[in-house]
Amino acid sequence: MTEALQNDRFLRALRREATDTTPVWVMRQAGRYLPEYRATRARAGSFMALAQSPELACEVTLQPLERFELDAAILFSDILTIPDAMGLGLSFAHGEGPQFAHPVRTKADIDKLGVPDMEGELRYVMDAVRLIRKELHGRVPLIGFSGSPWTLACYMVEGHGSRDFGHLKAMCWNEPVLAHQLLETLAQSVAAYLIAQATAGAQALMVFDTWGGMLGPAPYREFSLRYMAQVVDALKAHPASRELPVILFSKGAGQHLATMADTGCAALGVDWTVDLAAARQAVAGRVALQGNLDPSILLAGPDVIRHEVRRVLDSYGNHPGHVFNLGHGITPEVNPEHVKVLVDEVHAYGRQLRG
Predict the structure, then answer these.
(1) Do the beta carbons of residue 339 and residue 298 sit within 8 Å?
(2) Which distant-in-sequence residues (6+ apart) come within 8 Å of 293 by Cβ?
(3) How many helices (H) does the chain have, and how many strands (E)?
(4) Are strands 90-93 and 97-100 parallel, antiparallel or unpaired?
């Protein structure tokens, strides 16, 4: 799959090259705020049935591109596909988020875990990537992704979502060797998963470290960043992925941006608690930055959205290497027309800045 991209400004920005305007995509851009997504999910019968159908995953991946002039598509999937493939019994209870029937709490539990077969248990993801690339016809690049080892471990040990993921934290303090064994297996799995997505046709790769920011500085480096760096190293060593830009996003970990840039990734996601000017100074031009509008601003009126988009763009300034995004995922109650306002304003004001 070597078709020429009709719109490559997203990839150019990740390489910190000049672009005609600021590229933009939105975390969770295929999701519940879109009525067409809700209709497809209803047709599928459940979230898992939707995520595990390559045809339906392709359909919802492309839906936001029909509405908005986005500069990238992102694979529709879930961050917990790897632990599900490990046989932990993933389910989604209505209104309660993900749950695992078989959380891992003991050495015996962790000893049973192995790297899943990417063209076996996870073939549906790779089939979705192949189909999406085909259906995009080179319109925009396709982003593949995974949860980070730390974030996957949070759900696997706790068994469900949590405010503090106390079971995993206790394992880190009381049985650090066991915690590192789990994280090592997950780092190998995440690397293999992203390499497989690259092989299937993904053109950029993103690691979502949703829960890294709840760790203190030293534990963050030991239990989260260390394993993301290991994933980046593996991606750079493999022929299928070594040329692809890798984006790392640790929510709530803005104080670690400079250290994150040391991993050799191409870009860092920045949440809305960090000023982009300060983030740019912290990374000293070594990586591109992605972000960072507060998602709740999309609940405001169009004039407020335009003002806040300009504030973010002004904060980064007229420098290469910025991909506009939200500081976290779009929320279900957002009016799709507000997303159009955001996307159009990013492009219009981005051109004005370069004028």
Answers:
(1) yes
(2) 272, 308, 309, 312, 324, 325, 326, 327, 342
(3) 16, 9
(4) antiparallel
Q: Which helix (H) or strand (E) holds 31?
A: none
Q: What is the pLDDT of residues 233-275, one digit of tens each?
A: 999 999 999 999 999 999 999 999 999 999 999 999 999 999 9
Contacts with 127 (C-beta within 8 Å, 6 or more apart), sequence order: 54, 200
d(C-alpha 323, C-alpha 348), whole Å: 14
**Residue 284 one-letter amino acid:** A
Question: Catalytic positions, please?
Answer: 28, 32, 41, 78, 155
Whether residue 355 lies inside any domain: the answer is: no
Q: Is residue 306 part of a domain?
A: no
How many Cβ atoms sit within 10 Å of the Cβ of residue 61?
A: 24
Tokens of 299: 């609940």
Read off the tokens for 326. 């939200």
Query: How far apart, in whole angstroms, are the C-alpha atoms of residue 295 and residue 61?
Result: 20
φ/ψ region of 291 (left if φ > 0, alpha if ψ in -120 to 50, else beta) reads left
- How many residues are present in the chain? 355
**Joined tokens for residue 91:** 């389910």
- Interval 287-324: pLDDT, tens: 999 999 999 999 999 999 999 999 999 999 999 999 99
The strand order across the sheet containing 246-250 reads 73-74, 142-147, 204-209, 246-250, 267-269, 288-293, 322-326
Structure tokens at 159: 């068994």
Is the pTM higher than 0.70? The answer reads yes
Contact between 200 and 133 under an 8 Å Cβ cutoff? The reply is yes
Q: What is the CATH number of the domain that holds 96?
A: 3.20.20.210
* pLDDT in the model for residue 141: 98
| 10 vs 236: CA distance, rounded Å | 20
**Burial level of 210, CB count in 10 A (0-12/13-18/19+)?**
buried
Encoded tokens for 309: 């988009």
Number of compact structural domains in the chain: 1
Distance CA 141, CA 145 (A): 13
Q: Is residue 339 part of a domain?
A: no
Contact call for residues 64 and 30 (beta carbons, < 8 A) = yes
- Domain boundaries, position 214: 9-296+317-332
Cα distance between residue 261 and residue 286, in whole Å: 7
Q: How far apart are CA 283 and CA 313, in angstroms?
A: 17
